[in-house]
């Protein structure tokens, strides 16, 4: 074999190795090699590709952040519409949902695929012959925006499926989100630079994906869980849960919380289990989703206007609420640093009464134009200290007053 053919084989082997380690790290969260070793493989591939630029393929792991900034987003029509979900806000509403389904199908008990409802943005990924060819936002459900350049930079989204047996056309749907820890770090960075911070991880994820420059998207801590299907050539399996297991083996990231449960009582128990652990996840969820597991039953049920009859979202109590900013106190830290703290009219946030929120510093108060007396949106997620997300400007009272940091320590 000549050197050129050797290099070609080597490049192919390296790409498969890197794809495998990418999958272990970003999808399974089970890295097999140290980061330095991964970097070495990547550099080796880059060096070979530099020698043979004609052999660089778009799905090569070196090509995630490709292309120049775009002028705008193209519109794409979804071949299978991206629907929304019916909500259930109580146990009674969930039981009623289950009864309706059993009555329609004339069966005693239904198996549901249950998983957390992610608070991110819905995205459709299209694979043709195993290659990622399109990423699109939900838009109005019928037409969305082409965000292929952006989704290609998300490390948990494979550019090429691994393994075999996948359909020639495979469209999967899921939620792109930003981790809470990534969101906190991003906002801390923005604050330090005096830039604009994001209100919550969902806005941050949406803002990051809808960037015309893929380099910016690549720098943001985005991830994705796949929860369903769009257009698929042929059947993958008889049930949703088995189909999800199969696509997970092709490299797509599926929620580790996905479970099948039998009947409404088991659904409610699942809901309580997830709610109890809600704060421990490194991503925001706003409820759980129950989906009829048998695909034949899903087809029989069909959908009404914009939501399938075979699925329901059972929502958690909200993590954001409106309340009034009563005052701003100044706290003196151990090191003598002064931090403004918001005193709030008590408000219940996902089961916890919140009376204070951090305001970080004077800059933050200025940037958000927060005044004492304002109606504000407060948010509490995870173990994070409650934050003021924004001011409800159209409800600002006439006597709302600005705040000035004291120039002297209020204690000494
Ligand atoms: S299943 C036909 N599963 O919630 C729609 N949706 O409020 C089937 N969502 O647009 C959707 N997590 O973007 C499903 N585990 C999950 C989800 C989920 C978040 C979103 C989805 C949908 C929205 C409806």
Model description:
- The protein is α+β, with helices and mostly antiparallel strands and 412 residues long.
- It has helices at 3-27, 35-51, 91-105, 148-151, 180-192, 201-209, 214-218, 240-249, 263-277, 295-301, 362-367; strands at residues 75-77, 86-88, 111-118, 121-128, 131-137, 143-145, 169-178, 222-232, 259-262, 285-292, 303-304, 307-308, 311-315, 320-332, 338-349, 352-358, 375-379, 387-391.
- The model has no long low-confidence stretch (mean pLDDT 93).
- The protein binds 2-(butylsulfanyl)adenosine (IVH).
- 2-(butylsulfanyl)adenosine is lined by residues 83-85, 115, 117-118, 122, 138, 175, 227-228, 289, 308, 311, 313.
Short recap of the structure:
The protein is α+β, with helices and mostly antiparallel strands and 412 residues long. It has helices at 3-27, 35-51, 91-105, 148-151, 180-192, 201-209, 214-218, 240-249, 263-277, 295-301, 362-367; strands at 75-77, 86-88, 111-118, 121-128, 131-137, 143-145, 169-178, 222-232, 259-262, 285-292, 303-304, 307-308, 311-315, 320-332, 338-349, 352-358, 375-379, 387-391.
Index terms:
412 residues, alpha+beta, 5-stranded mixed sheet, 5-stranded antiparallel sheet, 11 helices, binds 2-(butylsulfanyl)adenosine
